[in-house]
Amino acid sequence: MAGLDKRVASYAMALEGLRDGMTVLAGGFGLCGIPENLIAEIRRRQVRNLTVVSNNCGIDGFGLGLLLENRQIRKMIASYVGENALFEKQLLSGELEVELKPQGSLAEKLRAGGAGIPAFYTATGYGTPVAEGKETRQFGARHYLLEPAIQGDFAIIKGWKADWYGNIIYRHTAQNFNPLMATAARITVAEVEEIVPPGELDPAHIHTPGIYVHRLIQGHFEKRIEKKTLLQGAADADS
């Protein structure tokens, strides 16, 4: 049986239905594999009071940092915030609600959400402020805390190549949080560098099956480098 063609013609169509107060799962790690054009469309739409779940919040002036600048994020659930001065400022002023999670716990909360598992026990964070207010339990000699799963209204992800049906391949470390986000939302929107006809992708190489993807668009990407580090010889040649 033929699959459904997931392609949409515009970014406005890709994020149709996104409203104030929703929870958005955003793939990427630092600036690697971020859905930069979908983020720009969220800014253009001026939706407010969003809860955003992502490993981090971009940098000043790019990625999710654009939504911070525009005061569109009410709450951020993340594992790392160190590269964004505005994030720090809004956190310390109380303007932005922040829920910090250990990186592995954040990943597992998303995986569980995608698998329909409501919560899971983990030893990570036991005995620290992360455990405050959470149910704890002892298994064997170790103590564990109960972490609820995460699910979102929209997931915005970035892939390398996809077919019309939304089967996606990621390139190298751009896999990061993107496959997890794709499974854990009511509506998953993917932007990719190339869309090919059905049958051109090796099924064994597909990372996210199209059943998880609802809308698909081909974009052009700036792909900024967050930090550029050169060997001394290469730096001299570059100057």
Automatic annotation (TrEMBL):
**Top-rank lineage group of the source organism:** Bacteria
Q: Which Pfam families match?
A: CoA_trans
User: Among its keywords, does the record have Transferase?
Assistant: yes
* Swiss-Prot/TrEMBL keywords: Transferase
Q: Name one GO molecular function term.
A: CoA-transferase activity
Q: Which InterPro entries match?
A: 3-oxoacid_CoA-transf_A (IPR012792), CoA_trans_fam_I (IPR004165), CoA_transf_BS (IPR004163), NagB/RpiA_transferase-like (IPR037171)
**Secretion signal: which residues?**
none
NCBIfam families recorded:
pcaI_scoA_fam
Family membership noted in the UniProt record: Belongs to the 3-oxoacid CoA-transferase subunit A family.
What's the protein called, per UniProt? CoA transferase subunit A
